Amino acid sequence: MFHTRTRLSHRLAGTALVLGVAVGAAGCGDSPTAADAATEKPSVSSLVLIDGWVKAADHGMTGAFGKLVNSSGADIHIVSATSPITKSMELHEMAHGDGGEMVMREKTDGFVVAAGGEYRLEPGGDHLMFMELTSPIQPGQDVPVALTAEDGSRVEVSVVARSYTGANENYQGGEHGDDGHGGH
C-alpha cells in the first residue's frame, strides 16, 4: 500500500508540475507586453469625440472643438478631416507669428492622440477648421465630420453648432478667400 501511495503521489506531483508549467506558459503568452503594445495597429474606430461642437457661422470659416479620446493600445495619428458642409477642412493650431503675435495656422503634421489618452481641441488652441462653408451652420444643427488617420482609415463624428463670440484669431495664410480673420 505504501508503494501505491508513493507512485500516486509522484504521479500527482508530476501532473501538477506539468499543469503549472502549461498554465505559466499560457499566462506569459496571453499577457500583453510592451512589445505587443508597440506593434498593435491603431484602430481609428477606437477614437471618439466627446462634447464636440462647432461655432455657428453664416459663411467663410469656422472651427470645431471637443475632446478626442483614444481607447486603443496604440497612438492614432489624425492627418485630415472632411465635412459635407465645407469645400475644405484643415487641422489647425495657434502659434506665434512673425511679429510674435498669436496666429492660427494649419498644423501640417496633424494631431496624435496617444494610446489610452485624449487630445483637446479648443478655442485658442488646436482645432478642426472649416475653410469655405457651402451653407450656413445654425445653432443646434448637427454637423457630420470624418476624421482620417495616417493609415487611411476614417471615423465619423458629429459636432453640434453653438453661438460663440470668442476666439476671433487671425489666420496666417489668407489665401482662402478671406480677409485673414478666422471668424471662429
TrEMBL record:
<feature type="signal peptide">
    <location>
        <begin position="1"/>
        <end position="25"/>
    </location>
</feature>
<dbReference type="Pfam" id="PF04314">
    <property type="entry name" value="PCuAC"/>
</dbReference>
<keyword id="KW-0732">Signal</keyword>
<dbReference type="InterPro" id="IPR036182">
    <property type="entry name" value="PCuAC_sf"/>
</dbReference>
<dbReference type="InterPro" id="IPR007410">
    <property type="entry name" value="LpqE-like"/>
</dbReference>
<dbReference type="InterPro" id="IPR058248">
    <property type="entry name" value="Lxx211020-like"/>
</dbReference>
<protein>
    <recommendedName>
        <fullName>Copper chaperone PCu(A)C</fullName>
    </recommendedName>
</protein>
